[in-house]
Amino acid sequence: MHYIILDLEWNQPISWQSPVYRQVGDRLIFEVIQIGAVRLDDGLNITEALSLPIAPTEYQQIHPRIRRMTGLGEEELAGAPAFREALEQFSAWCGEDYALLTWGCDDVSVLQQNIDFFECGDIPLSPLYDIQQLFARVHELKDRPSLQKAMELVHLEADGAMAFHNAKNDAWYTARVFQTLPDPAAALEHPLTPKSLIHKPKKTRERTPMTAFPSLRAALESDTALRPVCPRCGRNLALDGEYVLQSPDKYITIGKCRSHGRMLLRLALREEREGQVWMRRSVAPASASNVAYVHTKQFQARQRASQRHV
Question: What CA–CA distances, in Å, run from 112 to 21, 97, 244?
Fold first, then answer.
């Protein structure tokens, strides 16, 4: 049996609000743009290396950060095969009777999502095993180290002509670390399971600074109150009914984002002398109980208003 060390590079949406991401969604968070691999024989000698560039078909514009890290752009990937063809080439290169290994759990999750998205489940591949987990166990590390940190720990120097964040180079560096382990075959005790990849927006809440208004009415009729935005995508929210008084210094309502659902809106107020009002708006995802509570308060407010006009 021989070992094959795998590393991947991938692209991502230019923006999580871009048309292509809104169309593709979480079915493809990252699109593989390079497969790198190194083959080791049963004596752990490096015998062959492979680099397969891949032309993206969904996220065709390379994210500037990815370009800086990998050196791969639209020009470098022009004419490269699409993912399925590249994976078929890689599978054929692997051959038979091999173990497929990588550093950490990221590559297996991205690889599986690309296999699922591009419907490549019929292409044979060995299961993936984790060298990083074995390395941390052998060196009794509390946290799993990055590849560069692992190289430092075993006194391996990077080659100035081989930059990190190139799939072929990183696979070669991983192979060098693998060779230092006292029982490399023990990596097969650490199979990798793909994780479901989803985009988790970093920002889920929004709060404006305190702003002065000449009166309470002016505050409630301001753009701050009537034109709130979704904290996740920045689009204007559609108000689901009027603001209602929750406490002497707080008004609430529900807003709707077409992409991210209902949001709870709060207006915090502070009255000053001569009628001046300071107001701050906050927006956060609304729970079902939030929505029910606000709708009840709105219904009660409408009932009181109708009774006053009888």
Answer: 18, 21, 49
Task: Please report, for residues 48, 103, 107, 174, 217, the alpha-carbon distance to residue 177 in angstroms, rounded to integers and kept in the order given.
Answer: 16, 10, 17, 5, 68
5 with 38: CB under 8 angstroms? yes
Largest CA distance in the chain: 93
Tokens of 157: 């120097």
Q: Is the dihedral of CA 56, 57, 61, 66 positive or negative?
A: negative
Which tokens belong to 139? 């060196």
Alpha helices in 205-287 (DSSP H): 216-220, 223-226
Look at the chain and count its residues: 310
CA-to-CA separations, 215 to 245, 282, 305, in angstroms, rounded: 16, 20, 22
Tens of pLDDT, residues 184-209: 999 999 999 999 888 776 667 888 99
Question: Minimal CA–CA distance to 282: which of 295, 273, 269, 293?
Answer: 269
Cα separation of 136 and 54, whole Å?
A: 32
Model pTM? 0.68
Percent helix, strand, coil in the chain (nearest 5)? 35, 25, 40
- Provide the CA 243 distance to its chain's centre, in angstroms: 35
**CA–CA distance, 251 with 228 (Å, rounded to integer):** 14
Tens digits of residue pLDDT in 215-231 = 999 999 999 999 999 88
Asked if 227 and 281 count as a contact pair (C-beta separation under 8 A), the reply is no
Q: Name 49's bridge partners.
A: 38
Three-state SS at 298 = helix
